[in-house]
Amino acid sequence: MTTSEQGTYATTDDFFEDCRDSLSVHAVEVEPGAWDIVLRIDGTYFDRDTAMEITESFARDIRCLLDHLDPSSADRHGGAA
After folding, report:
1. Pairing verdict, β 34-40 and 24-31
2. What is the DSSP string of the chain?
3. Could you tell me if 15 and 9 are in contact, meaning their C-beta atoms sit under 8 angstroms apart?
4. How many C-alpha atoms does 7 have within 13 Å on its Cβ side?
5. 20 to 30 Å CA-CA from 51: which of 17, 38, 76, 80?
């Protein structure tokens, strides 16, 4: 069972492996002439309440994974530490 402090995925590798087929990047016009770059991590939902629950779950998972990233792993993957 997860809490607001826990995520569904033990590692970022688990997260990306599970979402591999759904991940895509899009530019979304949020107002005329203003664009956000978004990472789509799951498919389409036709019920707003379900979509909001899934959104909150993914947000919790991502926050948890980011909170537990090993800063030294950025060096191994070509990022800045």
Report:
1. antiparallel
2. ---TT--S-SSHHHHHHHHTTT-EEEEEEEETTEEEEEEE-S---S-HHHHHHHHHHHHHHHHHHHHT--TTHHHHTT---
3. yes
4. 19
5. 17
Each residue's pLDDT tens digit in the chain (81 positions)?
344 456 788 888 998 899 899 999 999 999 999 999 999 998 899 999 999 999 999 999 999 998 888 776 655 555 554
Q: In whole angstroms, what separates CA 19 from the centre of its chain?
A: 9
Rounded Cα gap, residues 54 and 48, in angstroms:
10
pTM for the structure as a whole: 0.66
